[in-house]
Amino acid sequence: MTTQIQTIQFNHQSLVTFEQNGTHYTAMKPICENIGLCWDGQRQRIQRDEVLSEGAVIITVPSNGGDQQMICLPIEYINGWLFGIDIKRCKPEIRETLIMYKKECYQALYNYWNKPQQLALPEPEKKFSFEFTEYELEQLVWLWCGHKQMNTLLGDMIKPLETIGSYFTGMVISHHQEYQRQYKNTLPTIQKLIAPFKASNQMNWERAKNLIAQ
């Protein structure tokens, strides 16, 4: 699925926003840079917070220096994140901008996505039919199983990386959370693919069914 990235102007600065699965998100690094906050510190704060980290997604944004991966939050989380920043602990030169963002940033993003527009009739969801051999279906199922196992390994690596203070800890946490959502969302599709082979006693299908059931 292609994510349509939009850029809106707020206080003569740019905010990156997009819609995914009915949820509106905004990229956090540009907001931190606009305010004058240390992005690395705020990135770690988002990843430590149970609510913010659960809602965060990562998208790839094209830039002059090449594609960049950005952590994004649902816009309804913006006020919670902003009001968690203690103004008294910030540098004096950024306090006025931070206060303005606390007052107006969420509303600007909300207004952008909820401006009046002509309602279009919903189009029926497109459906596609393809023919696959059993071997081809088996390869797709094993690709999913491999994705799940590799993501489990990513999750197991988090504590050891935290223990040694690795630079890669934050990246591993972000990818683990994002990939976990992906394989959970695709599980119903995989279960449909294996339905015709549930009675099969072939070793590969038995192993795949056991992994999917875990």
Task: Explain what the structure shows.
With 214 residues, this protein is α+β, with helices and mostly antiparallel strands. It folds into 2 domains: 5-113, no CATH class; 134-213. Helix content is 56%, strand content 14%. The chain has 8 helices and 5 strands. The protein has helices at 28-35, 39-48, 50-55, 78-83, 92-113, 134-163, 169-194, 203-213; strands spanning 5-10, 13-20, 23-27, 57-61, 68-74. It has a 5-stranded antiparallel β-sheet. α6 runs antiparallel to α7 and α6 (134-163) packs across α8 (203-213). The longest helix has 30 residues, at 134-163. The two termini are 27 Å apart. The mean pLDDT is 83.
Question: Short summary of the structure?
Answer:
This protein is an alpha+beta fold and 214 residues long.
Salient structural properties:
5-stranded antiparallel β-sheet; globular; Phage_P22_antirepressor_C; 214 residues; alpha+beta; single chain; 14% strand
